[in-house]
Amino acid sequence: MNNELKEISSFFETEYPLNKDGLRKLLSLFKLEKIKRGTQLLSAGTEEKKLRFLNKGVIREYYATSDKETNINFYTEPQFITDLTSFNANTKTKKYQEALSDVELLAIDKSSFRKLLNEYDCGKSFIELSFQRLLRNKELFEYNRLTKSPEELYNELFIYRPNWLEKIPQYHIASYLNITPETLSRIRKRIS
């Protein structure tokens, strides 16, 4: 197996076990894409046309209005970064994604993926389990945002997402916490 497929293969073996033949065929359909820092990967109002897996790099996901951008997630580890709602329902996304570093992705177009799903039933469980995980994470995110202070949220990042604090600019972290960079700076001083 080539080196680019190592992370995604490991991901499927631990997270979503597929039969060996189905996995081999799925992996053969992914194409390597190298993206430069600052590149927009996804824009609101467009339809997600690819199933994308982050192999290396850092991506921010956010909502934007004419006056403000609000970060909702960061991807720093090998994982799928596709807007599954748009991808699965053929709808336009409300999200944006931007590469915060040079990025290496593996991508498969929607029609090839769907053809594979029809051939191998186990692929359907991947979609169902992915949606269940997405909904759990979204509910936890909303609960935390509504019930915890910015300082408590920052402490959770410190404990559960220390790589975010190392790899992501502080003004993006402040946006994620829905506070100003100055408030984040005060929180960091109190904690240290």
TrEMBL record:
* Signal peptide range in chain numbering: none
**InterPro entries of this UniProt entry?**
cNMP-bd_dom (IPR000595), cNMP-bd_dom_sf (IPR018490), RmlC-like_jellyroll (IPR014710)
Cyclic nucleotide-binding domain location: 18-117
Against SMART domains, the record matches this protein to: cNMP (SM00100)
Q: Name one Pfam family in it.
A: cNMP_binding
Superkingdom assignment:
Bacteria
What is the protein named?
A: Cyclic nucleotide-binding domain-containing protein
What is the native source organism of this protein? Maribacter litoralis
